[in-house]
Structure formats: C-alpha cells, structure tokens
Specification:
8 helices, alpha/beta, 3-stranded antiparallel beta sheet, 7-stranded mixed beta sheet, Rossmann fold, 29% helix
Amino acid sequence: MEQFLPNCSKCNARMVQGPRPLMWIFGDVRAYECSDCDHVIFSYPLEPTSSPLTIGQQFDERSKGWAAIKLRINRMKNALRQLMKRTGYTISRSADLADFLRSRDVSTVFDVGANSGQFARSLRSCGYAGLIVSFEPIRATFTDLSRSMAGDSKWVGHNFGLGASRGTSVINVSENTVFSSILPQTDYAIQFDPKARVQRTEEIEIFTFDEVFELANVGNSFLKIDTQGFERQVLEGATKSLCQLSGLQLELPLEHLYEGDWSFPVALSKLESAGFVPAQMRPTTFMTGDPQSWTEVDCVFRRRS
C-alpha cells in the first residue's frame, strides 16, 4: 500500500517521513516532519487518496497517532509492572518537588547556593517556568552560572552570599566547588570525597534573605538553601520573610562534612518552631563504604496547617 504524506498544518508545505529513532516501538505509527518548518506529527499510514488532506483531517490523524502511542506506552508500563511484581518489586510514582511547586502555585524560586545552576536547570527540565533568583558568591563559579542563565529571561543571578547579617566573610573554595563552604570541613569530608579538599579562600559579600525578599516584591515564593552547612545562618537572616513563603527546601546532614553544622533533629525543630513541617525527603549523597546509608538529604518543608 502506498503511503500518502499529508501537508503541514502550520505552513501547508509537504511533509516527509522523518528518521525518528525508536518509532518501531509503536508499530505502524509514523513520524512526519515538515520540509519547511520544524513541525512534526504522528499518524497511521493512510489509504491512497486523490486529494490532499484538510487541516481537520490531519488533526484527526494526529489524534489517532497520539492515542495509539499512549495506548502502547500504557501497555508497556503495565507489562513492566507485572514483570517487576513477579520478582518482588512494585513500581509507583511519588510526588516530587515539581508537584509541590505546582500545588502551591509557586511563581518565584529563590536558589541560595546555586553553584553553576544545577538546581535551576532541574526545575526547568521538570516544567517549572516561573522566575528563578539564584545566589552564588564565588566569582569563578558565578561566571559558570551566568552561562547557564544566558537566554533565560526568567532566571537572574546575584554574585553574593546570604547569611544571618550583612557584611563580608571568607569562603573555603574546594576543588569540586559544590563542597565550598564558609564553615571549615571535618576530617570525614576528604574521606567522603577527595575533591572536597580546599584549594583556596575567597572573600565574599553577605546579605540577608530578608533584605532580598523585601526588594523582590514577588508572589508565591519557594526558598531553596544548599550552602554546605551554612543553612542555619541563612535562615537566621530570614526571620521576617519566612512566614510569607509557600515552602522551602534545605540540604540537611546525617553525617557531618562541616564543623559547626547543625544536626538533623535540631534543623527539624528549628523549622517546626518557624511553622514548617517536612513534606518530602530524598537522599543527595551516600556514606563512603556504606552506600545503603544516607550522608545528606534534601528535605522539602510545607507550612504547617
């Protein structure tokens, strides 16, 4: 049977069958690309016809194609669930940070301890389209962050740190800058990762989150803090604004990489006294020599009802 190729519903140019990898999974569902624009549609092979398809007919065929794809994906998921169930495992999807932000209609995320933008990029990849305000005090790392922000009009950054009061401080810059901290490291830090070793120090500016939040004048907001043991001090500079947040996320220690860092129970107690309780928790690092145990966790907090 000859395959009739529809016209593009956007520019009416001729569609060509695209070399889409993995389309064989969906059997006779085909991918077509426009010869002029980047538009792509999926459809079944069509019977030969003497006249071009109308836009409405093209839409119908696209709908059939997507419906078939969804049906086959669901069948594959069900088959995988059954296979895993027979081996003693259960597959399920739990709520994540993206779900939390959507449920609170968050329009602004403050990213404290941004490094080169890993957290913000993860937000974009999961569909968050609101404003991101990042803070990274190390100059060279902020340059990397600026490259990540380029082209994203809703992502802005500041080259200073946040703490309990306004002033200056000295940060220990590690070989792997994700371990850089104002606090000194414990002996376990190098054992945990040799690239945590401090290579130099750098003087940085410090502001308080209350100062930043007052100037921002934003709507529903979420605060993420990942400052390598300095989370408590950031919160101490946010006493006025915490009550206006929809939620926050902190990286909390179960094993200490930094001297003077608070303990997990103390952190929970501090947040509870501020009106927040845990909503989600996920491990970020695992113990050296005991990968079944967590070293640090990202904990999302919600406002207590």
